[in-house]
Amino acid sequence: MARQAQPTRGISSDGAQIAQWFSSLPVCTRFLLEATGTLTLVSGLGLLPGYHLLLLWELVTKQFQIWRLVTTFLVTRLSINGFIYLVMLHRYSLAVEKEEFGGRTADYVWFLMVCMISMLGMSWITQTMLLANGLLLAIATLWSLHRAEQTVRFVFGITFPARYLPYALMALNLLLNQGVFPFASFYGWLSAQAYYYLSVDLPARGGLNYIPTPQFVYRIFGQVHRSDPRSTGIRMATLSNPVSQRPGGGHSWGQGRRLA
């Protein structure tokens, strides 16, 4: 009897480890993985028609099916490609949330919101119905912009500087879509580039941060907005300063004085 119980204990232990690992993820990455995995599984198994999750502007504007504005970012195909999507989403979102937005959940949520709103606006033109790849590209683009010279390993063992990662991902999507232009991915890349320029690059050159995180987002997450000189136009340090590269936050310590 004791021998028969061992496999059960092993399965329970594995399940507990998985649950512990998942609960240890930062809140935004955990939500994105849980929501995308659940909706993809439910729609892939036919428990909920995927049609109800796609972005159809006519139904949004005329029948007020506003949930489509969110679900379009949170569903992919139930396939090996969908599994790879979740792996990449975990990798890049986890890194960005822990490093670029470490301890600043509200700022990461604002970045996601800015990119999602931008992609929704652009999707109106082409009537793109599924924007999950765009969300992944936005996160991966921001990741690459902060690690431009870092070497990354892509499919088939190909290596190149991280700044080329978004273009490699778009090329891969183009290939997987059999030559159909990946509008969603392009929109994600464009929105992240715009966010980085307006919240990081431009302020670091002495300009204003034109898209600071609103106070209501800080209040939702119970965080206190830290004073950011970029929002008042005070000249920042150069881009080589890692503190000045963090969007939505940071602190300027001043030049200091030499000791006698």
Topology:
Blueprint: H1 2-23, H2 27-44, H3 57-63, H4 68-71, H5 80-100, H6 105-126, H7 132-145, E1 151-153, E2 159-161, H8 165-176, H9 183-204, H10 215-220
Helix pairs in contact: 2-5, 5-7, 6-7, 6-9, 7-8, 7-9
Largest sheet: 2 strands, antiparallel
Query: How much of the polypeptide forms β-strand, as a percent range?
Result: under 5%
Mean pLDDT, to the nearest integer, reads: 85
What share of the residues lie within helices?
Answer: 55-70%
Structure class: mainly alpha
Principal-axis shape: globular
Structure described in brief:
By secondary structure, this protein is mainly α.
Can you give a write-up of this model?
The protein is an all-alpha fold. It is built from 10 helices and 2 strands. It has a two-stranded antiparallel sheet with strand order 1-2. Strand 1 and strand 2 (159-161) form a beta hairpin. Helix 5 (80-100) crosses helix 7. The longest helix is centred in the first third of the chain and has 22 residues, at 2-23. The chain is globular, with a radius of gyration of 21 Å. The relative contact order is 0.09.
Which short descriptors sum up this protein?
single chain, 260 residues, mainly alpha, two-stranded antiparallel ribbon, globular, disordered C terminus
